[in-house]
TrEMBL record, chain A:
The lineage of its organism: Bacteria, Pseudomonadati, Bacteroidota, Chitinophagia, Chitinophagales. Belongs to the thiolase-like superfamily. Beta-ketoacyl-ACP synthases family. Keywords: Transferase. PANTHER family: 3-OXOACYL-[ACYL-CARRIER-PROTEIN] SYNTHASE, MITOCHONDRIAL, POLYKETIDE SYNTHASE-RELATED. SUPFAM superfamilies: Thiolase-like. This is 3-oxoacyl-[acyl-carrier-protein] synthase-1. Residues 1-401 form the Ketosynthase family 3 (KS3) domain.
UniProtKB/TrEMBL annotation, chain B:
It comes from Chitinophaga ginsengisegetis. This is 3-oxoacyl-(Acyl-carrier-protein) synthase. One of its GO terms (molecular function) is acyltransferase activity. Residues 46-176 form the Beta-ketoacyl synthase-like N-terminal domain. InterPro entries: Ketoacyl_synth_N, Thiolase-like.
């Protein structure tokens, strides 16, 4: 019998807070992190809203707990800030105290910094300290700088499956624990806003000029965001022997590919349906036991139809309460799965359901609509958290209240 | 990672003629440009023309190697697809960065953006095979393919009957120049046939797409068993030697990622000291150095252990095996950071 996997520490930074408490505070205040960029060099600065972390990279060094130095990208700094909190929250002062893996997720690595230097990097006439950023072009750079700063050496990996990257990182870490390979793995992802990604999604006509409106009839697209989040996963036996404080259980997960289209989900949500169904089956819980679904809900035309249809197919006329928290954080791509996994834990811990901001009109294709007001004192026992991405990469997680 | 898996089928697109024909009579392709580029196959038998036109080089190479591997496996039900790539589609990434500047962020074609996404090859494989099973992409330099392999072995342990597991990488002229600025490549033009005789800083660049069908149980077709496997991140002090010695005792053959780079040669020397007298074959003169070269090395090791034969023209001086090869130790590292050891057994 494989071990259960417990979550024993969480850390995050997003546009609505530099840590978990800050995020919870602004979720409760129903205060969105969306606005206009102060840091990306783009013509869309005052046109396309983004959810930016409210610190210049220089100030992020302090949150990351390191002196200012070359070669540390915004992606790395956001990651380090979240990592510091996750380790502290789990009471880990030395990651070497037990074999600990680190599974990170990233979609464009250090593009946030390299895109500003790229034309110098390829120009033989230019030289200088910017050359220290050359290796930050890839996704492993942030992982290794975070690992080297805090001392991970046991097992490291970086996953990139677009918007489902950090959900897959959590799954991979949990599976390593269940196979008895490691007693403890820190999993999550980090994402900094870039001109590259903003133009990418904008060229796909997927970005809303207004604040995004998930599951709304009038929605026209997503808003990008940035942030990082990590969760400390421990095997049941390790957590008990270590006397760890258990926040929740990662009770189920599923990764499927939709094999439908390179960037669009199927209209009936086959991939989303399968991912949720299988993740729930793994958790051993029934449809009726699901208290809340933190949906992927990007507010793109295609995602919300597809995901909504999948919800209706799976739950029939008893679709649980659901909401998208992307109007708070923007779509943070590689970090989204981990950020929303933490929100799912907060929902369980505090008995809250977060409102789906900016909703006013039910979609004509659906018979369901999201929660629009903050609900407090609502018992939340099992949450499904969805992350669906480009390339048909779908992932669902089930996070359950710890009951011994 | 304990627990065996078996290589049921393989396919490799590389700078050598590895995609078709008999590799044991193949010629050794050579260049002194310090960049070993892939011999690209005819893609038309694998990819429909209208898709082919849109796809860039590494997507075509990755998808084609994956499809060929699936065909060779004789397994018709598609299973999990897991890949590794250090850099993904560099050509698309470079193109999109430039078009953003050139067109001042307006009227951009989204195709290079979509194709620059690291999981785009995986998505294409799944799409073409109508495969809705597990799908994952690892992007961690010299641990990219290796984590894909680890994931695959875990899936087989969890009950999957087979996986399609691979790696793909391309080198562009621009990226070759970028990496030359931080000492990745040798300064003097170096013929790949002479790679190991020129110990100096840096190696020669390469690229490739290599896929494997892995199964949990052996079949008459199996090439080899992967019986143990370990990754080591930035080993300091005596950690590497310690790990190598505890990993295996007396393999019949060692296949190494030696690459003529004097900056990191000392790791291979540690290997030499751990296993004196055991014959070694290096593979980087065939494929060059790149994040996922380890997948090519594994492909070569599996060829040799199955055929009990060395591709003679590729290894002048060690054309023949002196004794049967029952076990192979494979050891590779990527610029001293990500170290990998694998044990292969004859089936």
């Amino acid at each position: 019998m494989a071990e259960r996997v417990f979550i024993t520490g969480i850390g995050m930074i997003t546009a609505i807070g530099d840590n978990v408490a800050g995020n919870l505070h602004h979720l409760r205040l129903q205060q969105s992190g969306l606005g206009y960029s102060s840091y990306i060099d783009t013509i869309y600065k005052n046109v396309l809203p983004v959810a930016e972390v409210k610190h210049a990279s220089e100030a992020l060094f302090a949150l990351a707990g390191i002196p200012v130095k070359e070669g540390y990208t915004r992606t790395t700094l956001l990651g380090l800030a979240a990592m510091r909190e996750a380790l502290q929250d789990a009471g880990i002062t030395d990651v070497q105290s037990a074999p600990t893996g680190f599974i990170n997720a990233s979609t464009v690595g250090g593009m946030c910094d390299t895109e500003k230097l790229y034309f110098d990097i390829i120009n033989p006439e230019k030289t200088g300290s910017f050359l220290q950023y050359i290796d930050t072009l890839d996704c492993a750079d942030c992982t290794q700088r975070i690992a080297d700063t805090v001392g991970f050496s046991e097992h490291i990996a970086t996953i990139s499956t677009a918007c489902s990257s950090s959900a897959n990182a959590l799954m991979f870490g949990a599976r390593m624990i269940k196979q008895g390979m490691l007693p403890r793995v820190v999993c999550g992802g980090t994402e900094a806003l870039t001109r590259f990604t903003l133009n990418g999604f904008n060229s796909l006509k997927n970005v809303d000029k207004q604040f995004c409106r998930p599951f709304d009839q009038q929605r026209t697209g997503l808003n990008l965001g940035e942030g990082a989040a990590y969760l400390v996963l421990e095997s049941e036996s390790f957590a008990r022997a270590n006397n760890s404080r258990i926040l929740a259980e990662l009770s189920g997960y599923c990764n499927t590919n939709e094999a439908f289209h390179p960037t669009s989900p199927s209209p009936d949500g086959d991939g989303a349906y399968e991912a949720m169904k299988m993740a729930l089956a793994m958790s051993g819980h029934s449809l009726e036991e699901v208290s809340y679904i933190n949906v992927h809900g990007t507010a793109t035309l295609n995602n919300d139809v597809s995901e909504g249809k999948a919800l209706e197919r799976l739950f029939g006329d008893k679709v649980p309460l659901f909401s998208s928290t992307k109007p708070f954080t923007g779509h943070t791509l590689a970090a989204a799965g981990a950020i929303e996994a933490i929100y799912s834990i907060l929902a369980i811990q505090h008995g809250i359901i977060f409102p789906n901001l900016n909703f006013s009109e039910r979609m004509e294709e659906l018979n369901i609509s999201p929660v629009t007001t903050l609900m407090e004192g609502y018992p939340v026992n099992h949450v499904i958290s969805n992350s669906f991405g480009f390339g048909g990469n779908n992932a669902s997680l089930v996070i359950s209240k710890y009951e011994g | 990672m304990k627990g065996k898996c078996y290589i049921q089928a393989m396919a490799a697109i590389s700078p050598q003629p590895t995609f078709e024909g008999d590799i044991f009579s193949a010629q050794l392709v050579h260049t002194d440009s310090n960049l070993l580029a892939c011999i690209e196959p005819d893609y038309k038998p694998f990819i429909p023309g209208n898709s082919l036109r849109r796809m860039t080089r590494v997507l075509k190479m990755g998808l084609t190697a994956a499809l060929k591997c699936s065909q060779e496996s004789g397994i018709t039900i598609p299973g999990p697809i897991i890949t590794g790539t250090g850099k993904g589609s560099l050509q698309d990434t470079e193109k999109f960065i430039k078009e953003i500047a050139e067109y001042k962020e307006t009227a951009l074609n989204p195709t290079p953006f979509i194709q620059s996404t690291y999981n785009s090859v995986n998505g294409l494989i799944a799409l073409q095979q109508k495969c809705t099973a597990y799908n994952n992409t690892f992007v961690h330099r010299g641990f990219s393919f290796e984590n894909a392999l680890l994931d695959s072995m875990m899936l087989l342990q969890e009950g999957a009957t087979h996986t399609l597991t691979g790696a793909f990488e391309e080198i562009t002229k621009e990226h070759f120049y970028i990496k030359s600025r931080i000492g990745f490549w040798k300064e003097a033009p170096t013929d790949n046939r002479e790679l190991y005789r020129h110990l100096s800083p840096g190696s020669i660049a390469g690229e490739g797409a290599t896929f494997f069908t892995l199964t949990g149980t052996p079949t008459p077709q199996s090439y080899a068993a992967i019986s143990d496997f370990r990754m080591l991140y930035k080993p300091r002090g005596g950690k590497l030697a310690e790990a190598l010695k505890s990993f295996t005792t007396s393999p019949d053959l060692i296949i190494t990622g030696r690459n003529g780079d004097s900056n990191h040669e000392h790791y291979y020397q540690e290997l030499d000291q751990c296993f004196p007298g055991i014959p070694q074959l290096p593979f980087k003169h065939l494929c060059g150095e790149y994040d996922t070269a380890g997948a090519f090395g594994l492909w070569l090791a599996a060829q040799i252990i199955k055929a009990q034969q060395i591709p003679a023209t590729w290894f002048p001086g060690t054309e023949h095996l002196s004794a049967p090869v029952r076990t192979i130790l494979f050891y590779n590292h990527f610029y001293g950071e990500q170290h990998v050891m694998l044990k292969l057994e004859r089936v």
